[in-house]
Hints:
The chain is an all-alpha fold and about 90 residues long. It has helices at about 1-25, 30-55, 60-80, 85. The protein has one domain (about 1-85). About 80% of the residues lie in helices and about 0% in strands. Helix 1 crosses helix 2 and helix 2 (about 30-55) crosses helix 3 (about 60-80). InterPro entries: DUF1294 (IPR010718). Keywords: Membrane, Transmembrane, Transmembrane helix.
Amino acid sequence: MYGYWILLSLYGFVLMGMDKRRARRKARRIPERRLFFVAAVGGAAGTWCGMKLWRHKTKHHSFTVGIPYLVAVHIIVLLLVTGVWVWGAAA
């Protein structure tokens, strides 16, 4: 479970960097739908880190609100799935 989350976060991070680079070069961009999809299925933390590091998509309300929301949802889901939320410490 953690491996899946980490890999998708890395992928989201890389996608943000690639899109920022393409934006600067006026090249073909990565669709916002794809960036959000990767974030929604588990890559929100990496996408958010990429937003902050490269200052990319920071003026888009859907990203500045939506991505942190997805990070919170993913953390809650991970805590519930691993049992930490329910039982306190990992059992």
